[in-house]
Design brief:
Metallo-beta-lactamase, Chain A; 6-stranded mixed β-sheet; alpha/beta; binds zinc ion; 6 helices; globular
Length: about 210
């Protein structure tokens, strides 16, 4: 699997494109905030002759769903989101107003993202429920390429914030221990913000998980 990232929006959110067979691709967490960023995403897709077939949201925080409306209308792809994040999804417009952000409301999700296996574009993605940053936060694992799209669960040297509605610090720590740190060391973690890292690096160095904890 080929994985491309773009950094978009006022929160420097990472948007991912996962490329599978026959130039089909999956767009994860489109954070495009303006026409310029929409063009960057579109140019990449068109220049590579890619065909988007699905739109996945790891969770429903506004910086991860800002580009949903654009992507949905541009490529008419089904939107996948966990039903556990619908309360956050419904609150996105008021959060945008609170932060004085421009926000075109996302279309309603088409498919409830469930834990298990998702077969898309010839890729087999394991969908894991990793709550704590958001109640319905899902992580996508492509085992063949040892790639994890981990959203805002774990960052290089940090973890997702838990002070927003629906957040729970202890739940996030145990979710990461049980769902991510059980993966092999050499799996790459592509995070919702900041640089990518590996499971081994975070298990050894992440300050939220001191040795033996
Ligand atoms: Zn978030």
């Amino acid at each position: 699997m080929e994985c491309h990232s773009f950094e978009f929006g006022p929160f420097a959110e990472n948007t991912y494109i996962l490329i599978g067979k026959e130039k089909q691709c999956i767009i994860v967490d489109p954070g495009c905030y303006n026409a310029h960023e929409e063009i960057i995403l579109t140019d990449f897709i068109q220049s590579r002759n890619l065909h988007p077939v699905a739109l996945l949201n790891t969770h429903a925080h506004i910086d991860h769903i800002m580009g949903n409306d654009y992507v949905k209308h541009k490529w008419n792809v089904p939107l996948y989101l966990s039903h556990l994040d619908i309360p956050l999804f419904e609150r996105a417009e008021s959060m945008a107003a609170l932060w004085n952000l421009k926000y075109t409301p996302s279309p309603q999700p088409d498919i409830d993202l469930q834990k298990g296996t998702l077969e898309l574009t010839g890729l087999s993605l394991e969908v894991c429920h990793v709550p704590g940053h958001a109640p319905g936060h899902m992580v996508f694992i492509h085992h063949d390429s040892k790639t994890v799209i981990c959203g805002d669960t774990l960052f290089q040297g940090s973890i997702g914030r838990t002070d927003l509605p629906g957040g729970n610090h202890e739940e996030l720590l145990s979710s990461i221990r049980e769902q991510l740190f059980t993966l092999p060391d050499d799996y790459t973690l592509h995070c919702g913000h900041g640089p990518s890292t590996t499971v081994g690096h975070e298990r050894a160095h992440n300050p939220f998980f001191p040795a033996g904890s």
